[in-house]
Amino acid sequence: MASSSSPVQVLYESGKSDSDKKRFRSQENYDDEIIVSPEQNENQERPVKRRSDSSYEQSVEERLLGPREREAEPNSIKEKLKQERKTLRIYGYRDVLLEAVESNQVVVIVGDTGCGKTTQIPQYLYEAGYGKKGRIGCTQPHGFTARSAAARVSQEMGVKLGHDVVGYSIPFEDCTSEKTVLRYMTDGTLLHQLYGEPELISYSVLMVDEAHERTLSTDILVGLLKDILPSRTNLKLLISTATLDCAEKICELFDSALVLDIRILSHYPPHHQDDHVFYLEATEANNYLEANYLDAAIRTALEIHENEPSGDILVFLTDRDEIEVAAQQLHQPHQLSICPFYENMPAELEAQFFETTPKGVRKVVLATSIAETFWPTKAGVNYVVDSGFCKNKSYDPSSEKERLQLTRISKASAMLRGSQALLGKCFRLYKRNDHGNPKPEVQRSNLTNVVLTLRHLGVNDSTRFHFLDPPPTEALRKASQLLFALGALNNVGELTEVGERMAEFPVDAMLSKAIVASDQYKCSNEVISIVAMLSAGDHDSVFHHPEDKQVDADNARMHFHSGNVGDHIALLKVYNEWKDANYSAQWCHENYIQIRTMKRARDIRDQLERLLEKVGIELSSNPFDIEPIKKAITSGFFAHSAKVQKTSYIPVKQPPKNLHIHYRSGLARMLPKCVLYHELDLETNQYMRQVTEINSEWLQEVAPYY
DNA sequence: CTCTCCCTT
Question: Is Protein biosynthesis one of the keywords (predicted)?
Answer without folding.
Answer: no
